Amino acid sequence: MDLDVAVVGLGRVGLPLALAFADRGLRTIGIDVDASRTDAVAAGRMPFFEPGADEVLARVQGRADATLEVSRDVAQAARAKHVVLTLGTPSFSHIEIDVSQIRSVLDDLLPHLREGHCLVLRSTIAPGTTEFVAGYLELHRGLVVGRDVFVAHVPERIAASRFFDEISTLPCIVGGVGERSGEEAASVFAALGAPIVQTTPVEAELAKIWTNILRYTLFALPNRLMMECEQYGANVFEVIDLINRDYPRGGMKLPGMTAGTCLRKDFTFSEERSPAPGMLLAVSRVNESVPLFLVDGLKRRLPGETLRARKVAVLGLAFKSDTDDERDSLSFKLIRLLERELALVAAHDPLSPSSTLTLEEAVSGADAVVLATNHSDWQDAATLERIAALAAPGAVLADPWDCFGQRAVFGPASELAADVADRDGHVAAQPLA
Ligand SMILES: NC(=O)c1ccc[n+]([C@@H]2O[C@H](COP(=O)([O-])OP(=O)(O)OC[C@H]3O[C@@H](n4cnc5c(N)ncnc54)[C@H](O)[C@@H]3O)[C@@H](O)[C@H]2O)c1
């Protein structure tokens, strides 16, 4: 074995991880079947935006000892002692983990596995998947896991766009199968510098999915409250302030468009064989209802209570702030729902690869503007003033995030802009990209 570590799947998780290993001097190979990913890396280009990654890629490729290579051939992974799988694990729509990417790579690797190999599952997986993988190797190759080869789950808990801030500090959970798998897996992750916490495979699996279930549920509560406030004519931001203010047991989060590839599906890995089915589905239904809530709220506030032939600007296509990742973003559901009301949708996102309009083009003459993503660059009074100036007179703003501090989910854009300017002092409108 001439390499230290192979990372199979150069996506949002795998590529930064491969870069981090190579940057610490580990002889690393990154493998992906998608040529656009491997070609980009080989050409010294990041295929997506991750803060700090361009610099690390340039540094790694500039090293005299060339610690990173890339390939599309999964069999090449067997050149490394540690093989880390960072493949996608989507959920089928009927609530069941889809492990087909993992199985496909296992089948490609099976003939090449030798004694001493350590296979690490970094992907998010349903409870029991690590033991399934260990059993698969034993069944098809007759290798004893924990003695001949090693299998562990070392879940990725870093949020996209924070990778290089968190990789050396966030506790690294290691759940190894059998006696020695945990130690073997820890020996490669130790290079990243974060504290290692040893546990069992199923506890590692549960810790990861429940990290995300906790967040998904915590965000569903203010989203549900937002809908209830609309029902009673109450202001959700006032109510949240009343809940949290000087209260030692408070902590209600703010509403928003809660989704993304992880939160939107990781709960299904618990739900697929839940002893109390339904609770997490309800959490999902609340978060998934926010786009419809916004569409209905806008409709009620527009003359004639219709969106038909109204121009609606949707600002933000990414699933969360300050990323170009559009996967599983609720913005697209929002756009589809608006289009089903016969609205004329114009979308803009400064970071999105699929956004073609400028903010000015999207907002000019709009009857309604929805802040679908809370990008940091938008969070100021000047942006709200600019939106109010560009949109049609009487245009309605919908912003569940309270991006501008206007403390209203819905309202006439010009009135909200004037209120914010009065409160914060006038801020000169800046030209926006
Ligand atoms: N994106 C996140 O922020 C995040 C955070 C924590 C955990 N996770 C988990 O990490 C895992 C990966 O997520 P991601 O966002 O990086 O996914 P991704 O889809 O961006 O990356 C997966 C990569 O695997 C490649 N691939 C698929 N089949 C392959 C095969 N047979 N051989 C080689 N390569 C193959 C794909 O081409 C793709 O580039 C998932 O389980 C996800 O739930 C993601």
From TrEMBL:
Annotated TM spans: none
Q: Which domain of life is it from?
A: Bacteria
Q: Which InterPro entries match?
A: 6-PGluconate_DH-like_C_sf, NAD(P)-bd_dom_sf, UDP-Glc/GDP-Man, UDP-Glc/GDP-Man_DH_C, UDP-Glc/GDP-Man_DH_C_sf, UDP-Glc/GDP-Man_DH_dimer, UDP-Glc/GDP-Man_DH_N, UDP_ManNAc/GlcNAc_DH
**Keyword check for ATP-binding:** no
Show the SUPFAM superfamilies listed in the entry.
6-phosphogluconate dehydrogenase C-terminal domain-like, NAD(P)-binding Rossmann-fold domains, UDP-glucose/GDP-mannose dehydrogenase C-terminal domain
Q: Which UniProt keywords apply?
A: NAD, Oxidoreductase
Entry's Pfam families?
A: UDPG_MGDP_dh, UDPG_MGDP_dh_C, UDPG_MGDP_dh_N
For the keyword Manganese, the answer is: no
Q: Which residues form the UDP-glucose/GDP-mannose dehydrogenase C-terminal domain?
A: 313-406
The protein's matches in PANTHER family, at most eight in alphabetical order, are given as: UDP-N-ACETYL-D-MANNOSAMINE DEHYDROGENASE
Q: Which family does it belong to?
A: Belongs to the UDP-glucose/GDP-mannose dehydrogenase family.
Q: What is this protein called?
A: Nucleotide sugar dehydrogenase
Source species: Patulibacter brassicae
